[in-house]
Design brief:
The protein has 801 residues and is of the alpha/beta class. The chain is built from 26 helices and 26 strands. It binds adenosine-5'-diphosphate and magnesium ion.
Length: 801
């Protein structure tokens, strides 16, 4: 069961797939939203049974809610927050917990996700069609529904999304919407919505009838008089009552704010406009929001701190263990920055797998420089408007993320971390990296133009740092502006230090424990590292330690022993964390036939990758299953072609491949980024299966293979070797052409592995396959009849039967 921040909703039900703006004022809700935003975690939105309850507890909430992601937060001057959220999944609420610092508590809640995968059954299809038809009729009767809604409904294929979208567009009471939300079964949900739609349509028809009758009676003059009168009364009630004060307050705020001249002129003009508008028009809100945004931005305010190099070094060491080289590079970079007045030159870019501390090093740099810190995650940003904002004419327009972040920073010279620049993508709405290029260019960024703001904004004092998992994902023009600092994954020893000295103390504090109240001995840390996480960095390690802290906190409450201390041993870990997630150490227990270990480079760093082949009597088919991308398919083909070209040397009949089917499978692990580098591993596994000779279990390999069996170089060597070391591999084969990259591999890793350079697949086979010395001259005459039944793969003196 997972735990997420929780936010109760009054009078709104958010369906999965819907994007909604929410104005949030309750403190717990704001804290929950901020927590979700910060940790990029989903938030659970659940509707209150009674909208009037101000501080709802579990009994005031429905039990089914919606997990949503927070897309944007905009802090309004009156302390409320405007949040843009997107519903993702239905989820059931369980236990609620109060989290956070004193006086800053908010709720988190254990949830189970309740999504039902819709089936493709005919019955469901029929219901879907009926639903589309009914909604079409409904929409024609209801003039308030915009055309686009209808279009998007017709285009949706997924029945669950479809019915949710329809439900969110019918005007219904909150309870009824909640009932729809609570229907987990898609079929039942459609049924319910259909019922409602039919009822509503009937009501429409009746209303229309009545309306027509009344209209006839009322002459048009009468009507106009009546309407104008009504509007006047409403304006009196709402607008004027508080409007007057509010505006003069705003005028004062404008007077007080230090603004550049051009901004002051513009905002004064807008203010005049605002004055003349009726207090309750939609346009008023737009203008008002705009003025608030400008006033909320820092225009001149800055942190006045100088870099003290001694202090900087201290801070970096205080916050992070190891990382010797990156820290040195950062300090050199900072030293240069102290000598020049304005920040110029390349932007730092920290590159490495997740959880190695890129983001947190950025934070540390801010602390070392005595500046504010803001982070903007670019992961998933694909629209230029997300970076640069929407024009104000666009409904619901907001500034872009750069300006929103500056607002959050509150000063014009923060350290600004552009996180995950390699995760941006490009689509038809424009290329976000073009906007970023402008942001990072010192020649242009003193006059950054956000579409919403529509005023030049000076970013030239901002200290930008970027991070990425993977250099390849960064657009080249951006790379040109960057100084790359590589952070590698951690070895087991390093993880131990980090866990003991940094992660555990941090989690103890975050979960309300005093120092030393929970202690883990070395064996228990190792247990967590080896059997509950498998990663290059330490992110899951930190999460897992947090999970232990939470479990113990709960136990302590239950036992009513608030000061009890805990000392965990290796065996205790399982008690709190349940069954181990990973088999420790990937090296196999015995040398297996057809099973070869490769080293892959994945999104999360290096990993061991096990490739398994089996041979069956057949007709020459190659089947590939498991998590193999297209690239790996090609490698497998190349590997098989190589084996065929070597048939005679391997002692096989030249037409052996026509008699067998080869099945290659990758049992587990993440999807490799560099598919081709599994080439020699696949070849080894296939040959081992064909020749029925086991592969050395202590050996791992990496290298691309050509049709003729040459071994080509690969990328990500350091991460791969780290993975081998973590997996307790003793010997590795790497392409000869990668010899020069060995220089960059930390000595500690190099010296713990027996590294052999290969440039030919024959060499690989000789090293990898375990056979007696005399057979090393390549496997003559192995009797296969026993294995393959009535035919032989091997060229015998007697013909095959
Ligand atoms: N060398 C280190 N020393 C101490 N803590 C570290 C170290 N590396 C990572 N961490 C911690 O691990 C967690 C994950 O790091 P994070 O900065 O989010 O990684 P990244 O941004 O590279 O994915 C953070 O809490 C961070 O402080
Ligand atoms: Mg990060």
């Amino acid at each position: 069961m997972e735990q997420f921040p929780l936010m109760p909703l009054r009078d709104i039900v958010l369906f999965p797939g819907m994007v909604a703006p929410l104005v949030v004022g309750r403190k717990k809700s704001i804290l929950a939203l901020e927590d979700a935003m910060e940790n990029r975690s989903p938030i659970l939105l659940v509707t209150q049974k009674d909208a009037k309850v101000d501080d709802p507890g579990q009994e005031h909430l429905h039990t089914i809610g919606t997990l949503a992601s927070v897309m944007q937060l905009l802090r309004l001057p009156d302390g409320t927050i405007k949040a843009l959220v997107e519903g993702k999944d239905r989820a059931e609420l369980h236990q609620m917990h109060l989290r956070g610092k004193k006086n800053e508590e908010f709720f988190t809640v254990d949830v189970t996700v309740m999504t039902e995968e819709p089936t493709g059954s005919n019955e469901l299809q029929a219901y879907v069609r009926e639903l589309k038809k009914a909604f079409d009729v409904y929409a024609q009767g209801n003039k308030k529904l915009p055309r686009e809604v209808l279009n998007s409904v017709t285009s949706i294929e997924n029945p669950s999304q479809l019915v949710d979208l329809v439900a969110s567009h019918i005007q219904l009471k909150t309870e009824e919407k909640q009932k729809i939300l609570e229907k987990i079964s898609v079929l039942e949900r459609i049924n319910l919505v259909l019922e409602i739609l039919f009822r509503e349509m009937e009501l429409f028809a009746m209303e229309k009838d009545i309306h027509a009758k009344v209209k006839k009676k009322m002459s048009s003059t009468q009507r106009n008089y009546y309407l104008t009168e009504k509007i006047r009364v409403i304006q009196d009630e709402i607008g004027q009552g508080e409007g007057g004060d509010d505006l003069s307050e705003l005028e004062q705020a404008i007077g007080k704010k230090k603004l550049p001249k051009y901004a002051l002129e513009k905002i004064t003009k807008e203010f005049k406009k605002l004055r003349q508008m009726p207090a309750m028009s939609a346009e008023t809100t737009v203008v008002r929001n705009y003025i608030d945004t400008v006033l909320d931005l820092p225009w001149k305010k800055k942190s006045r701190a100088k870099i003290d190099m001694n202090r900087a070094e201290g801070v970096l060491d205080e916050d992070h263990y190891g990382l010797k080289k990156p820290k040195e590079r950062i300090l050199e970079y900072l030293a240069v920055q102290t000598q020049v007045k304005k920040l110029r030159g390349p932007i730092l870019c920290l590159v490495g797998p997740p959880g190695v501390g890129k983001t947190s090093v950025c934070k540390s740099i801010a602390r070392a420089m005595g500046r504010k810190f803001v982070r903007l995650s670019l992961g998933g940003v694909r629209d230029e408007a997300e970076v640069r904002g929407h024009r104000r004419t666009y409904i619901g327009a907001m500034p872009g993320k750069i300006i929103l972040s500056m607002q959050k920073a509150g000063v014009i010279n923060p350290v600004f971390c552009l996180d995950e620049v390699d995760k941006m993508s490009v689509d038809f709405r424009g290329d976000p990296s073009a906007a970023l290029l402008e942001v990072l260019d010192p020649e242009q960024n003193y006059s950054f133009n956000d579409h919403y703001l529509d005023l030049d904004y000076d970013l030239s004092e901002v200290f930008f740092i970027t991070t990425a998992n993977n250099l390849h994902g960064i657009p080249l023009p951006l790379q040109d502006r960057m100084e790359i600092i590589q952070l590698n994954g951690y070895t087991e020893e390093e993880k131990l230090h980090i866990a003991e000295d940094f992660l555990l103390p941090k989690q103890l504090q975050a979960n309300g424990f005093k120092e030393g109240e929970i202690q883990l001995n070395e064996a228990s840390f190792l247990e967590v590292i080896r059997r509950y996480t498998r990663e290059a960095g330490v992110r899951n390690l930190e999460r897992t330690l947090a999970a232990i802290c939470r479990k113990i906190a709960r136990e302590r409450l239950k036992e009513k022993a608030p000061d009890k201390r805990y000392q965990l041993t290796g065996e205790d870990v399982g008690v709190y964390l349940g069954v181990a997630k990973y088999r420790y150490g990937l090296a196999e227990k015995k040398n297996e036939i057809g099973l070869a270990t490769g080293m892959a480079w994945t999104e999360v760093g290096g990993e061991l990758l096990q490739i398994e082949s089996t041979i069956m009597p057949g007709t020459g088919k190659l089947t590939i299953t498991g998590k193999l991308g297209d690239v790996m398919q090609e490698s497998a083909q190349a590997a098989l072609t190589y084996v065929r070209s070597r048939a005679v040397r391997l002692g096989l009949r030249s037409d052996f491949y026509q008699k067998i089917d080869v099945h290659v499978h990758v049992p587990e692990g993440a999807i490799p980024k560099d598919g081709p580098s599994a080439g020699i591993t696949i070849a080894t596994s296939i040959v081992s299966a064909i020749l029925q000779i086991p592969v050395d279990r202590n050996l791992a390999m990496t290298g691309e293979i050509t049709l003729r069996g040459r071994v080509l170089p690969i990328g990500g060597l350091t991460e791969k070797l780290l993975a081998a070391k973590r997996g307790k591999i003793l010997r590795v084969l790497i392409p000869k052409e990668n010899e020069r990259n060995l220089e960059d591999v930390p000595e500690q890793i190099r010296s713990s592995l027996d590294i052999q350079l290969v440039d030919d697949a024959d060499q690989v086979l000789e090293e990898a396959l375990i056979c007696k010395q005399e057979e090393k001259s390549l496997f003559k005459d192995v009797p296969f009849d026993s294995i393959y039944g009535n035919f032989s793969l091997v060229e015998h003196n007697t013909p095959a039967q």
